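Worked Example 4.2. Consider the chain below.
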Amino acid sequence: MAAHQIRVFGDPVLRQRASEIIDIDAGLVRLVEDMIETMYAAPGVGLAAPQVGVQKRLFVYDLHDEQGARTILNPVITEAAGEWVFEEGCLSVPGLSFPITRPKMVHLTGRDLDGSEVSIEADELEARVFQHELDHLDGTLLIQRLDVDQRKEAMRVLRGRTFELPATAPSRAL
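Applying the procedure from the previous section yields the following structure tokens:
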């Protein structure tokens, strides 16, 4: 069972910019542990604090490699290069995914849960996870990255869910 409920499209907390983390304390450590549990239960590869209703600049992620779950506090992308299109979904927009173009490589800086500086050169999936979770920290949802036609189709499906009306699947693969 997940420690937190994941906030979904329509929740105003997802549209607000999260605050910088000043202190790392026991409450923050517990939040991170709960977020990791929630991410695994979803299941997902990343989860930002606003997705569980907490307006703090942090996210957790696990690329299912030997490193396991990791935490980044106050992340900043300092460099980006290239272009990569990939089918991207979001735990806050469940059941929908879209081909999204993002930079292929990024350099991310921040802090880990011990307060140590983190500097990561990432590409492809890891770079995409960083960019996606950073969007959440800035109050940007995946829907906002779509072209006009994709956004209209996504909104039609989401409105159908919101009002519990039967929603048909989009007419094209997303």
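The helical segments are 26-41, 124-137, 148-162. Strands lie at 46-48, 58-61, 70-81, 84-90, 93-102, 105-111, 117-123. Compare this with Example 4.1 before moving on.
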